[in-house]
Amino acid sequence: MKKNKNTKKIILILATLYSLLFISCSDFINDPDIQNDPNRATKVSPDLLFNAVQVRQFSRYEGHTSRTAAIWTQQLAGVDRQAISLGIYDITESEWRTDMDGLYTGGGLVDIRKILKETEAKGWKTYSGIAKVWEALSVGMSASLWGDLPYSEAVSETSTPKLDKQEDIYTAIQALLDQAIINLTEGGGYLPPNDFVYSANSSKWIEAANSLKARFYLHWAEVDPVNYTRALSAIQKGLSSNANNFKTYHTTVENESSTIYQYWRTRNSDIRAGKFLVDLLISKNDPRLEKYFQEGVGSVAGQFIGVEPGGTLTDASNLSETTKNPDNAFEIMTFTEANLIWAECAFKTGDESTALAKLNEARRAEENRWGLPADTLGTAVGLNGDALINTIMQEKYIALFMNVEIYNDWKRTNRPFVTPYSGGQIPRRLLYSSNERASNPFILAPSLQPLRNNNDPNDNY
C-alpha cells in the first residue's frame, strides 16, 4: 500500500510539472530551435499524457470556473481585489483565459486525442473508453459555459478551426459517451496504472459515463422537454453509491495539492461565504454549514456570516478548513447528484412519488457522505407540485457546493431565486478567451458575442 501511494505521488508530480510546462511556457515550447532539437522526445507515452489530462482537467473543474459559478449563484461572494469585479459582473475576455486554453492544450483535447489514437490502434478498449469519458466531460462542461466552440476541427491541420454549434457539440459527445460505454463494457488490453479516479475499474467508469449522459441531457431540457425522459433513462444506470463518486485526487505535498487550497493560500482575502447560501443553511439548521464554512472573525467573530454581491466584509465566514485542505478531493459527480437528477426527471415526467423518494435518497446519500447521523437532513413527506420541485432543486443547490452544475441549473430552472448585484444582471455565459480570439478569426469581439447560449433560450422553468 505504501508503495502504491509513493508511486501515485511520483506520477502526480510528473503530471503537474508536465501540465505547468504547457501552462506557463508556451513561448518556450514554440521556439523553432526547440522544435528542431534532435535530442527532444518526439513521442510521449499515453500514461504520461493521461497524467497531464487528469491534472489539467482537475484544475479546470475546481478552479476559476468553479469560483465563478459559486459567486454568480451566491454560494460565495467576491469581497477583495479581482474577485469583487467578478461578483458585480465587471468582466473581460481575459477572465477565463487559462480555463479555455486548458480545453485544448497542456492536458486538454490535443493530448486526449493522442491517447485515443494509440489506445484504439492497440485495442486497449478500457483505456480508450476512459479517455472518451474524459473528452466528453471536458468538452461538455466547456460547451455549457461558452456555447459554440471549436471542436470538430480543433485537433486537425486547420489553423483556424470553425466554431461548432453548441447543439452539435452535445450530440457529438453523447455519441462519444455511447462509444465509451461500449469500449468499457467489452474491456481488454493494457490498463492505465495512473487512473486517479477509479483505478481503471470499468464498472465505475460506465456508471460515470451514464451520469454524464444524464447531466448533459438535462442541459437541453429547457429547449426540448423530451430530454427529461432521456436523462431519466441514463441516470438509472448512473452512479449507484458514494463509493463511486467522481473525485479529483490530491495529496498534502505542495505541488500535488488541490486548486482550491492553492488559490486560498495565495489570495485568502478575495472570497468569502455568500449570504444567500449561509442564510439558507442557517434557516434549515443544516449541519453542512460547518462543513462548507467557518465562523467569521474580527467584527463578526463567532458568527456564520455571508456577504451579498458587491460586499467587502473580509471578516465574514471563510471556507472551512476541510474545504481548503490541500488533499481535499473535489467531487465532480456524485451519487447525491444522480439521485437529484432522477428526482427532477421523475417530477418532470409526471412521477411525483418517485421524485419524492429520490429526494429522500439524496439526503441519505449526503448524510453518509458527510458522516452525519441518520435523518439529520430530515425526510420529506407529502410534498407535491411546486413545493416538491423547489425542494429538489434547493437540495441540489446545497449539495453541489462550488460545482459548475449549479450555474447550469440556475440558467435552466431559474433556481435558486437569487437577486443580482444592484443594477446588474448575472451573466448567462462566459466570454471567449482573449487568446482564442487573437488566434482564431471565428471568435467575435466581446461586444458581438451572444448574451446567452442556445440551450438557454429563456428565464422560465
Q: Hey, roughly how much beta strand do the residues contain? A: under 5%
Mean of pLDDT: 92
* Radius of gyration over all CA atoms, rounded: 22 Å
Low-pLDDT ranges:
1-7, 13-41
Helical percent range?
40-55%
Secondary-structure element pattern, one letter each: HHHHHEHHHHHHHEHEHHHEHHHHH
Strand order of the largest sheet: 1-3
Q: Main β-sheet: number of strands, strand sense, barrel status?
A: 2 strands, antiparallel
Number of helices: 21
Number of strands: 4
CA distance, first residue to last residue: 50 Å
From the spread of the alpha carbons, the general shape counts as: globular
* Structural class label: mainly alpha
Question: Which properties best describe this structure?
Answer:
461 residues, mainly alpha, 21 helices, two-stranded antiparallel ribbon, disordered N terminus, two-stranded antiparallel sheet
Architecture overview:
The protein has 461 residues and is an all-alpha fold. The protein is 53% helix and 2% strand. The chain has 21 helices and four strands. The protein has helices spanning 2-24, 26-29, 32-35, 46-62, 64-72, 82-87, 97-104, 109-121, 125-146, 166-186, 202-218, 226-235, 259-266, 275-283, 288-292, 321-324, 335-348, 352-370, 385-399, 404-413, 434-439, and strands at 76-78, 246-247, 271-273, 331-333. Strands 1-3 form a two-stranded antiparallel ribbon. Helix 9 (125-146) packs parallel to helix 11.
